[in-house]
Amino acid sequence: MDQLVRGLSTQNTQKIDMLFTQTLTNYLYSVHPNHVFGMDIVSLDIQRSRDHGIPSYTEFRKYCRLKAIRSVKDLSKIMVEGATDKLLKQYKHWRDIELLVGALFEKHEDDSMVGPTMRCIIREQFIRTRMADRYFYDLPNIFNEYQLTEIRKVTLARIFCDNSNNVTMMQEKVFLIPTMADLQLCNSQLIPKININHWSEMVDTFQK
Questions:
Q1: How far apart are CA 58 and CA 64, in angstroms?
Q2: Other CB atoms closer than 10 Å to residue 75's CB: what's the count?
Q3: Nearest Cα to Cα of residue 18 among 84, 73, 110
Q4: Residue 79: strand, helix, or coil
Q5: CB atoms near residue 94 (< 10 Å)
Q6: Beta strands in 117-157 (DSSP E)
Q7: What's the Rg (C-alpha) of the chain?
Q8: What is the C-alpha separation between 88 and 76, in angstroms, rounded?
Q9: Backbone φ, ψ for residue 184 (5° rounding)
Q10: 10 Cβ partners below 8 Å, 6+ apart?
Q11: pLDDT at 135
């Protein structure tokens, strides 16, 4: 677990695009010791989207209230360089492009690892997950204001520190690659701990 935590917090993630390792495109679910053959994750995901009736890429852009694609020129503006020619060799019309394929070929937003369509999907999923969870932590009558303050102090850095065996240092912002100057001791005040005293009946009674 410690090695996994160190890797997650110090290594660059790969770019989100249409480049997939052969492990996923040729040898997925392979049980043969020499990995002679396997399945293709991209083909599987495309087939799954068809089975479930997922709208095409251009239709999903409408759902996300993004600019409609009315020409090859429009498509070229939002796709990475060279993607439009590849897509139109595989699809008769831009209206036929699968959601997964189109979304992964999109140019990334300036402040995002994904394009506008994928960002729309991720945002919508987080909103729906929160709204559908009747135990979500900040809903009324679940925690009091003191407990909420403690919960909101906790960062992923604290979670990494508390749930590993021998990880003693961590940067405050674990999604950013650290330098030596960024690393803090896990017991540092810069990586806040939760004060569980706010969950004791005595403290709750006093606060009320």
A1: 10
A2: 20
A3: 84
A4: strand
A5: 20
A6: none
A7: 23
A8: 11
A9: -120, 150
A10: 177, 178
A11: 87
User: What is the per-residue pLDDT for 82?
Assistant: 94
How confident is the model over 49-93, as pLDDT tens digits?
999 999 999 999 999 999 999 999 999 999 999 999 999 999 999
CA-nearest of 51, 148, 60 to 96 is 60
Q: Averaged over 147-167, what is the pLDDT?
A: 94
Q: How far apart are CA 90 and CA 96, in angstroms?
A: 10
| Helix (H) or strand (E) run with residue 104 in it | helix 99-105
pLDDT tens digits, residue range 38-54? 899 999 999 999 999 99
Averaged pLDDT of the chain: 91
**Residue 46: both structure tokens together:** 């495309």
Q: H or E element: which one contains 184?
A: strand 183-185
SS3 of residue 106 by DSSP: strand
The length of the chain, given as a count of residues: 208
CA 172 to chain centre: 19
